[in-house]
Amino acid sequence: MNARLSDYDYNLPRDLIAQRPLQRRENSRMLVLHRAEQTIAHHQFRELKTFLKPADLLVLNDTRVLPARRFSDDGTIEFLFVERLGPNRWKCLVKPGRKMRVGATAKIDHVSMLVEDITDDGERIVTLDEDVDLYAGGSMPLPPYIKRPSDDRDAARYQTTFAHAAGAIAAPTAGLHFTPEILNEIPHAFVTLHVGQGTFLPVRSEEVAKHRMHAERFSVSPEAADKINNAQRIVAVGTTVVRVLETAARSNRLPTDVSSKERQIEPQSSQTALFIYPPYRFRAVDVLLTNFHLPRSTLLMLVSAFAGREFLLRAYEEAIRGRYRFFSYGDCMLVL
Fold it and tell me: How far apart, in whole angstroms, are the C-alpha atoms of residue 120 and residue 20?
């Protein structure tokens, strides 16, 4: 039977959507899911280390979020600059789209821009009169379920403490809970996936298998590959890390029944459009730390593939009863 979009729905009270980060990153709550026993327990994120083994390796996404949100000089159009395509040329999302059809113009910092083309997914390709850095003076691109403008605090808190490689338009939110002190106590490695709009595009087909992910750029360094290949268990911090590691593992074309010690991740820079949903056989990831995700989203489907859909939705019901904080600035879950 084909998976249906409606299988990944749940009702969330609006007041559980976290609008601001906690005062301290490490004070997040952590719902722990034990897959083997099908049990759920309530903990604090700062207890993470107690659930790990000595030979475990945390793998985190060190992408850095760009201050990609800008407004036209007259304040009527919002731009999210997704990618610099070349001198004077950018790919962006705009609101409202009806004001920026092909041939339309607008100004940012008195620099004129022209809509050259519109992609199938509604992105605008714009050309500028001058070659300027539109990220200079931009603000953090908070997701639309955070119902407020971004401020100076978001510049630090909607960014992991280990963010390094600039290129994302959204934070890898499972990493937002870590302080340098907590991370330094646990063996870890970094990979990079620049989170783009593909991660968040809604699934429009009721038949899940018909959805297609946008490709997103990722890289695995030789140092990271060596650490990953020598770890006993891989603890993926976030769904973006899962997609990187599973893409890299699949690229080796190893048999599907290969043991974890035989899985080799090669250093690489590539793209992934991997869409993970049940049923899926994981080749690289053993444990997952993740935030709570939107209903009917590809992220919820990925975690369902890892934890089991029914078990995961039962955990979400438990989190709602326990009044956990949801989404980007919310609490997290550890799936063992």
Answer: 34
Give the residues across from 334 on adjacent strands: 32, 289
pLDDT at 238 (0 to 100)? 98
- Each residue of 275-296: pLDDT tens digit? 999 999 999 999 999 999 999 9
Contacts of 84 (CB under 8 A, 6+ apart): 90
Angle between helices 239-251 and 298-307 (to 10 degrees): 70
Q: How far apart are CA 322 and CA 316, in angstroms?
A: 10
Give the pLDDT of residue 257: 47
Domains and CATH numbers, the chain: 5-65+144-335 (3.40.1780.10), 69-128 (2.40.10.240)
CB atoms within 10 A of CB 109: 12
| CA-closest candidate to residue 293, choices 278, 281, 303, 307 | 303
